[in-house]
Amino acid sequence: MRPSGPDCATSLPIGSDADLAWVRQQVRQCAARLGFGLVQQTKLVTAASELARNTLVHGGGGHVEITPLDNGRTQGLRMCFVDSGPGIHDLELAMTDGYTSGGGLGLGLSGAKRLVHEFAVDTEPGRGTTVTAVAWVAHVPSSRPGAG
Ligand SMILES: Nc1ncnc2c1ncn2[C@@H]1O[C@H](COP(=O)(O)OP(=O)(O)O)[C@@H](O)[C@H]1O
Ligand SMILES: [Mg+2]
Fold it and tell me: Which part of the chain is the Histidine kinase/HSP90-like ATPase domain (predicted)?
């Protein structure tokens, strides 16, 4: 699966609440341009919001890489959240609904995973964390009379 061109491919810093707002806005704009519907746009923005907040709060800041995809059948959007923070020592525990090491709700990682089609966490204690989320535009087949 290859990037579908430079269109809305970008890398954005995550170091402040203002950055989080900008990331949300850019994800929505890119998703809309790629043809995601309103519901899927909102899912992507919600996932991005949670993952970017984790990068900021737990990872001590970092950046997100937003990449448009094209697998030959449909358009997709990949978001890679990267930090060089403390890493996640127990990933299974961190992915559990309701688990938080701080005062959060513990629904960010597990919730974000449910909102996208592909989800991966690459983390190493002491070195940092990269969370990758991918979603694909769902094309509803048109129902033409007499077709198929
Ligand atoms: N980028 C990260 N770096 C280090 N730890 C993280 C990161 N993202 C998540 N975690 C760990 O995973 C836990 C669960 O994350 P999450 O489900 O978003 O809950 P919350 O952010 O509400 O604590 C966090 O409490 C934290 O311990
Ligand atoms: Mg969180």
Answer: 39-139
Contact (Cβ atoms closer than 8 angstroms) between residue 88 and residue 129: yes
Dump pLDDT digits (tens) for 90-136: 999 999 999 999 889 999 999 999 999 999 999 999 999 999 999 99
Structural domain including 53 reads: 2-136
Residue 59 CB–ligand 1 contact under 6 Å = yes
142 falls within a domain: no
C-beta 55 within 6 A of ligand 1:
yes
Q: Domain holding 21: CATH number?
A: 3.30.565.10
The answer to whether residue 146 sits within a structural domain is no
